Each structure stands twice: as structure tokens, then as C-alpha cells.
Amino acid sequence: MNKTSNSIFMPGRAFFITSLFYLLLGGFAFFFDFIFVIWILIGAGSVLFIISDLVLLLSAGDRLKSERIIPSSLAQGEPTQVKIIISRSGPLLLFFMKLYDLYPESMSTSAFPAKLDRRSLKANGSIVFEYSLLPNTRGPFYFPGIEFMLCSPLHFWRLRVTHNTISYGRTYPNFKQMARGVDIRGNPEKGEEKQIRKRGDGLQFESLRDYNEGDSIRLVDWRATSRNRTLDGRPKLIVRNYQEEQDQQILFIIDSGYRLPEFHFDSALKAMLLLSYVALKHGDSVAAASFGARDLWIPPRKGISAYTGLMNGLYDLHSAPVPSSPFSAMEKALSHLNKRSFIILISNFREEDGESLSWILPRINQRHLLLMVSFYEDSLYEILGKDNIPKTDDDILKKAAAYSYMANRRRLYKKWEHSGLLVLETSPKHISSALVNKYLNVKKSGKL
Fold first, then answer.
1. What is the pTM assigned to this prediction?
2. Whole-angstrom distance, CA of residue 141 vs CA of residue 146
């Protein structure tokens, strides 16, 4: 329930209309004596009505109580239902009431102002006002209160009352939206998965099974075959079944500085969380770190229960236009890692990063597998588009500079790939699918 934080009396619409009419009538009364008498009488009567209306408003006051019911955990972009329970605690109730819920700027709704029907508020009874609210931004949310606008019977006065009905919680990334349109094995929304198996070249023995047509002869376990025979006495072929090695470690490092604008950063974070879920479902441990606007380290944990910790650690992470250093981030990451890991570094790499990272990449390559994830430069692709035909000297220079920049960037990526690193250049729209598929390919290849 609530306690009233403050009440403010304000003139109503009828007060302003009456005042304007009385002012105009006073202008005519200056020229005509008989209108002057009418003006005096109307003024006296108006004052009587205005004072009486104010007394009624003061007598009724705030006789409302309010309570808000909202989940403490919301999903970004997923509408949620909010209930406001309003009750009265006295016999006298004002005739006109409007309701405003003081929801945060990170959310949106079209439900307010809402008119309340006083007839449905019986003595010592209550009504439930329900509305739909859309959380637009990740992060913590806070409702400071509920506001009522109470109007006097003649509309000369209004009383704005704010109740300290406080609610707070967290808005998380929407997992359904993250998984939508992503080509992964199994259905993460239902908790399903299919094990990744590769016959013959897997890293970990799983089980024995009967031979199926098309299996490689190299998979036959001759010792087990010699102990099994069919009903007619012939040997029954038994083959070994392999799966990719589990209990491997994945580390995400995301750039929260100027290199990734908020839209790119948001897409990258959702891709991180989706791939974290997939990796945890496949028995790997997951760690996460960020650099730039906020330095963050979430130690590696295994099991699907670790996903909750990742969500709580990353849900309110945002990028900001501040400097960021991939070199420093990698140095810090190496100090935390004590086993071979699949490191996924998400930023927007440029030609100058080749020299700054050249000192640390060989050290990483000796013990770990590194994937460098970068976004396409949309503005450059617009300049280089076929439809963008240069018309002036400036346009020609701009297009030549774009070609040079892209060529140097591709040259850097090729250099990294030749040194044994993995490079992924993608768009915000496809980063989730690209990351998941890259992870599955790494698991299949046995590189990790």
C-alpha cells in the first residue's frame, strides 16, 4: 500500500473560464452603468461558488489508497500487464478522478491519463485498473509512485495527489527475440538440444552401437564385434560412437566503448547471451568480460544454472563514446585464464589494431583459440555501392578512400587468419546466427 507523498491544489478549467468572462464583462462595465451592477453581482456570486467548491474539495481530500502489481523481471520488447488496485477509505468521494502511473522513461504505454468511475468505488471497496506496458530498454527500472488528479464538483479546483507506490525490478534481453530466426541445433526456447556428433573423428568416445549402412569401416570395434553374433551365427558389427569433447571453456570479451554504437552493441550482447545458452547446454563453461565504458569480469561457470548469473551480470551493460583498448582487454583476460579457452573478442577492428595487437596475439595463439568478431562498416558499403556513382571530385576522393580503408582492413583480417586466428565479419542482423554456426564448426573441427 501507499502513503501520500504530496498534495498540490491548482485552479481548474472552470476557474479560468469564469475569470476570463468576468474580466471581459468588467471591460464593458467601465462604459455602461447597468452592466457595472451586473458585474458586481456576478462577482459576488462567483466568489461564493468558488469558495464553496474549494471547501468541498478540502473536505473530501485524498481518500484513496493504491497498490501496483508488476513482475520484478521483464523482457525487453515484450508487453507486460500492470495492475493498479485502487480502494477508498471514507464515505465522501470526489466526482471526477484521473489516474497517472509514473512509469519510467525506458517504458511506453498509451493508457494515461485514465478516467476512473467513482460509482465503481463502493465504500471500503476497490477497483482494479489494468494496462499494457512495453519495456523498450534493458536495465533496472523504477516506478516512483502513482498520481491522481481529483477535481471538485464544479471544476473550479483540482487536487493533484502523489502516492508513494514504489515498484522496481530489472528488464532483461528478450530470449525469444534473440533465438528467433537463428539457425541452431535444437530449440533453446523449450530447453531442447541435439548432441553434436561426428563419427570417426570426434575427440571423445561416447558409446557402442550397431553398425548402420554408410558407417566408415574405421569405426568398427573388432573386439566388441567378436563377442556379438546374429541369430544365424554371423558376426554382428559393432561400431564406436564419438562426440565432441565437452567441459571446454568459452570466454566472451565485448567492447563497450566508442567502437560499437548502441545498436551494434545491443546486437552483439544478445548474440553473446544466445551462444552462452547453447554452449552451456552442450556442457561447456562460459565466462564473460567487457572493456571500454565498463570493465567487467564474470568468471567461468558450467551448467545451465550459470545462465542466470550471466543475464544478471550483463543485462544492464551499455556502450558509451569512450576510448577502449582491445590490447588491454586481452592482457586482463590472460591473467584470469588457467586452461585452454575459446576466446571470442567482439569489437570493430581497424588497420591500426594490427600493430597494437601484434605483441599479444602470438601469446594467445599458443594456449588458446581466438575468434575476432567485427561488424561491417555500413557507411562504407553505402559509399562503395553500385548505385552510388561519384559525380564530383569530392565523391571520387571519398570512394577511393573507402576502397583503400576496406582493402587495408581485409588485408589485416587475412594476416590474422594466416597466423591461426579465426576472423568473423558480419552485420548486426546476422551476428547471432554467424556466432552460433562458428561455435558449432569449431566444436566439430576439434580445434578447441
1. 0.75
2. 15
